[in-house]
Fold:
Amino acid sequence: MDTYAYGIVNVLRGWLEGLGGPGMRAEALGSVTWADLGVVAFFVVLTLLLNALLAVVLRRQTRRAVEQPAAEDLRRQSFQVVRKPIYLLLWIFGLYLAGTPLLPKPGQGDDGHVVAGMVAKLLDVAVFAAFLWLFFRFTHVLEAWLKTLSGKTSSKIDDLVVPLLGKSLRIIVPVLGIIFALPLLDLPEKYTDILGKGSSILLIVAVALILSQVVRMGEKAVLAGYDINAADNLRARKAYTQVHVISKTLYFVITLFALASILMLFKEVQRFGTSILASAGVVGIIFGFAAQKTIANLFAGFQLAMTQPIRLDDVVIVEGEWGRIEEITLTYVVVHIWDDRRLVVPLGHFIERPFQNWTRSSAELLGSVFVWVDYSLPLDPVRAALKEIIETDPLWDKRFWNLQVTEASERTMQIRVLATSADSSKSWDLRCRIREKLIAYLQQQHPQCLPKLRADVGPGPLREAVKEAARA
Structure:
């Protein structure tokens, strides 16, 4: 490239010297002549003109594509993608040709050769970067084209595979670009090993990222048929729990193997690994004792995913706290307490200790309300009042309710109201409403039947005083 550039510059320089005469050979800036400055100005102006002309052409083509039917949308996107990289390539070559007259000539000693070599490498890297940028931007066009094709099919898998392919290409293209660009730098041999390891690390990380995207796509594909926000979401919660636990495990395995692969690139780590394998028995015992809790929690995570004593969004009572399962990781579970606190519980707790799961087989619950009243309370009118209270409440799911006397003491009797609801949150609100309205009914209709303390006052001054107070 530098040979052609110097040839073009010499032709223009000779042409300007012929037009301007001997004065064009005079030095203007150091060893730079007026003819050299004329060549610089020529290439700068030429680059500006070509940039303006290219902008007009691309803008006109883009406008025509916009006015076309939707089928031409890919054409419009292609023009938008090409525009900036083409501008960049134009300015790279324009500035290179414009700067060539200002650089030392290749025959002007060692300095000229060194500077010319550096500029040539810089030009190669810049051109390669521009083309890499162009390929990277074209991945969006390819993804849009594939989306157009997948939109014509009824399969939902296409809608997941196409974004995965687009993201994978946007990861692979820069990595491969860096790997192929390293030879262009022609760095000293002592840096070869470092660059080789660096490119290997980039490739390993890229593969790990792509595998993570594959796991995420599989997770979305499996969960696409389940609605966690549905009223009866038992099957959805089962699927979400299993998929989340398995996907987190796969992420952990991918990360572990990626780190192991990176570490094995270094000879020091390889020697260390050989030493570990030589003493694997002792190390295994030490590791087993040191990490037994962590390993137990990992196995508990697999057991929990398969047997599912708890699932995401389950209502549980753990350590005396009422809440919902908010997050399940490989080692612990986060319970969202009703007052917005978070209870973090090791996974082993749900395998080894008892706990309450209110939504194990169904979200429907039977709520109870207890009220202490006097023996003189007539139950039939209370049942009639409760019928109106419960059956008109939208939180009652219309399955069952009743009123019973469940306990009797020497002073009062206890009545229990049972009412069903769709889930635990509605059950709590329904119980509170029943309790409030029942107490209000007793205060208004049967205030004499509220709990009271009876006393038998025998003959004497106190009994007479009570009688006088009653007459008054």
Notes: The two ends are 122 Å apart (CA to CA). Strands lie at 27-29, 32-33, 315-318, 321-328, 332-337, 342-346, 356-357, 365-373, 396-408, 413-421. The first helix runs from residue 2 to 20. Residues 2-152 form one domain.
